[in-house]
Amino acid sequence: AVRQQQFEYGYIFGAVCPAKDKALGLMLPVANTAGMIEHLRLISQATAKDRQALVIVDRAGWHMTKAIRCFSNVTLLPLPPYSPELNPVEQLWQQIKQRFLFNTTFQNYDDVIERSCQAWNEILSEDGFIKNLCSREWSFLV
User: Fold this and answer.
1) Element (H, E) at 53
2) DSSP code of 102?
3) Per CATH, the architecture of 11-133 is what?
4) Which residue of 3, 13, 78, 83 could cross-link 26, Cys pair, CB 3.0 to 4.6 Å?
5) How remote is the C-alpha of 79 from its chain's centroid?
6) For the segment 75-102, what is each residue's pLDDT rounded down to a tens digit?
7) Does an H or E element contain 11, and which?
């Protein structure tokens, strides 16, 4: 197995719409409230005026702060603790890691960003991929 000796990170803020077979992502150097607000702004802009976006979030601090509740057409649904399987986007992260980034070393931060973005774009270019991977016919909101 390849062993990375130094560590630099990039964070993908991502959302999926299985019904439309679409995803939206934002690559950032840090995961924080400002990044989450920008991500939600992009989701809000991508959501039709007569529609509401439901964004499932874990309980990371930048997901739970009141500062991010600033878009009238975006509703956040926090998951119960320790239940990532309920968030459809988790399967996307798993596929990106397994198919494109597993057992990989990176030269530097720019390489992390470039290869992560390539993986994101390649996986999303597959017709029907998001719909098939992220649909949840067994889940219902009441």
Assistant:
1) strand 53-57
2) T
3) 2-Layer Sandwich (3.30)
4) 13
5) 15
6) 999 999 888 888 999 999 999 999 999 8
7) strand 11-17
